[in-house]
Amino acid sequence: MKSARFALLLTALIACWGIGSYDLWAPDEPYFGEGAREMVVDGHWAVPHVNGEVTTDKPPLFFWLIALFSLPSGAVSSFTARFPSVLAALVSVALTMRLGRRWDNSEAGALAGLILATSYMFWDKSRTAQIDALLCVLITAALVAFLSFRAGECNGRTAGLLFWALTALAVLAKGPVGVLVPLGIALTTLIVDRDLRSWKRFAPLAGPSVFMMMIAAWIVFASVDGGGEYSVWGAFEKHVLNRAVYGMHHKQPPWYFLTVLPVQLLPWSALVPGALLLAWRRRSDPINRYLLVHVLFVCVFFSIWTEKRSLYVLPAFPAFALLVARLVMTASRGESDQHGARVPSLRWVKLPLIATAAGLLVMGVALPSLAKRAPDGLVVPTLFPAVVVVCGGAMVLLIALRGAATTTIARSLAVAMAAVYLVVAIVLFPAFNPIKSMRAMGERVREVAGDAADRGEPVLAYDMGNAVQAIAFYSNGIYCRPVEQRGELVSHLESPKPAFAVLSRKAFEALAPELRARLSTVASSQMARGEVLFVTNQTSDAPNALGR
Length: 548
What we know:
mainly alpha; five-stranded mixed β-sheet; two-stranded antiparallel ribbon; 24 helices; globular
């Protein structure tokens, strides 16, 4: 139990530390923050609104959670926007440890929790205002209910109702993948185990009925309160079918996840091939069969989609953690496989860990090069703690590899990575905030164009992408009106009345020279896709227009 408590404490520490010390970063975090802000301020609870308009990109559950945590203070902050992900990560780690303890022992469960908590993408999403940590925990919880039914620990009807209720919540978090993924894993497991008939005991009618009632209740709520602005079928067609078949923003080849998983699973990537191989060699064990089905189904399912992002496969990370923990525990015990051959711990565990330690050492030495890309305030001395921690962790791991048990080595790696994540959260994230945040731009829009916006005069946005969401959030409700035609932007800026617009530097430079000469740049911000400008047709000597 002490190991389990330590794993949960470490998860809470690295996920929660400093989540309120830097702003919400585009493109995704301001989107969810603004949707929740509008729920709190404007009362749009049934259907999320972002930048003053109905958004069909995502269902409402994550917005609801952020808004609920923000109600006591009356405002959405970086902390309240990210806190639901922290809680989701803690529950995911607890559920993973529960499975490891049930299948092996408490030490294996705690190790699986440490592996999951310190996997790079899981840690990153555990402290980010994005849906994926919430989706991961809901899918994991649904599968725990299924596995409890399979193990005879829970009545089939009760487990089935819980499974379907959790998948309904997952759908309300991120759409149909919330049910397709856990349902696909459960059915594929039964098919592989040649036990599909047992599905009849898993609430086959009552479960789907509960699922449909929960989804239907929200659809009715959205249809009535949304005033006809929201179409469930339209959202499904645009954001599920079109993404799957055609892709919208992130078209990737079928082998995409093979290229990104080694990075996202760091520092455990080098152990994953051995863990998969061991599980395959011991596939007569139903637990190994389930874990293989879990990771392969998630990866194959999303590989079929045209649109892919690395975070799509986060629901597979608890299974990856359990597989790696089983490998480490098996190597530590020196057990024999089903053919009687001793598991070669040096080849399967220690050599990959040596490669991991070497990689950490290289990363530590290379860290000062970040100063070249960082803002003025971030110099090599600021990076010094990160260099010390990364290199120190690598050295501790190399020393442990000389004689410690493989479980001790794995725990040492987890603690070393936790130290690295803490340094990143404490030192690097706040230092990079000036070039990742749109706060200054949003506050400047409120200061300069607030009166005009209150009178109903629009602030246009051109070639801005998701940056308008961040401006709406940090301007406290000035909704920029996106336009796609450059002629409309030009007519707006050529108006004799005061006019304001936000646009990319590229779009600004494409304007006619005589128009550019008449414009004043009020503020600028550097975003990932390039520089963003806030401009007005008022001259720089007009103090009321520029707020000077």
